[in-house]
Amino acid sequence: MNAPVMEADRVTCPEARNRVRTALEPLCAKLPPAQAERLRQDACLVTSELVTNAMLHGGGIEDFHAYLDGKVLTVRVRDHSTKPPTPLPRAPGSGGGYGWLIIRRLSTHLDIQLEAHGKTVTADFDPELMPV
Fold first, then answer.
1. With contact defined as beta carbons under 8 Å apart, do 73 and 124 qualify?
2. With contact defined as beta carbons under 8 Å apart, do 61 and 48 qualify?
3. What is the pLDDT of residues 23-51, one digit of tens each?
4. Vertex 113, ends 112 and 119: CA angle to 5°?
5. DSSP of 26-85, one letter per residue?
6. pLDDT at 3
7. Nearest 5°: CA angle at 22, between 20 and 26?
8. Virtual torsion, Cα 27, 19, 3, 130, nearest 10 deg
9. Per-residue pLDDT tens for 106-124?
10. Helix/strand number for the chain, H first, E second
């Protein structure tokens, strides 16, 4: 495994997305432009959702990592909540409740590790497994 390209203990959504874009640069340079753009958009959207969920529902961000391991981008967010993520009921007109569904739909692999003082959610993006 390669060393993490970008790390931060606590991060905002824009900072996290920038770190993801930077981590993706070597891989996206090798992909067809449309596939590279789709990968960037999906990874940045999921990153925003993971960071936002940690802030709103997880008691804040404990740790953030984004790194490239060969052809797979890994985004990892650790928060302070020991509760697993669950989809929220969506009320008409509320505009919310889609984050966890988006994360599950766009990542090619998802892992949740519950720990004594929080949880770590890891989302992988493998362009070979992403829908066209």
1. yes
2. no
3. 999 999 999 999 999 999 999 999 999 99
4. 95
5. HHHTTS-HHHHHHHHHHHHHHHHHHHHHHHHHSSSEEEEEEEEETTEEEEEEEES--SPP
6. 39
7. 110
8. -40
9. 999 999 999 999 999 999 9
10. 3, 5
